Amino acid sequence: MKTLTLEEAAIFHGHLGPFLTLGYIAGKEAVKRVESKSPFEIKAIITCPQETPYTCFIDGVQCSTLCTMGKCNISSFAGSGITLKLEKRDGKTITIKVREEV
Fold it and tell me: How buried is 66 (Cβ within 10 angstroms: 0-12 exposed, 13-18 middle, 19+ buried)?
C-alpha cells in the first residue's frame, strides 16, 4: 500500500518530531502485519494522553496507514499510555504499545 513518506508526514504535521516518527513507524508495522492493501479495509484506534506531544503520534499513524477522520476509520481516546490497535475487515488485528520509558 502506497503511503506518505516520513518526510511528507513531517510536512503534513509541521515538523519532524519523535512522537510523529513513533506513530509513523507503528502504523507502517501494523499495516504490514495485518497485510493491508487498502486504507478502506482497516481502522486505527489510538489511545494516548490527549495533549501534545503525545497526540503527534496520531498524525504519524494517519500518514503511514492513510486512516483519516474523513473516512471515519481512525479514532483517538484518552489514556495514560500510547497504543495503536489496527483492525482489518477480515478480522486480522494487531495492537502495538509504546513502552512507558519512551
Answer: buried
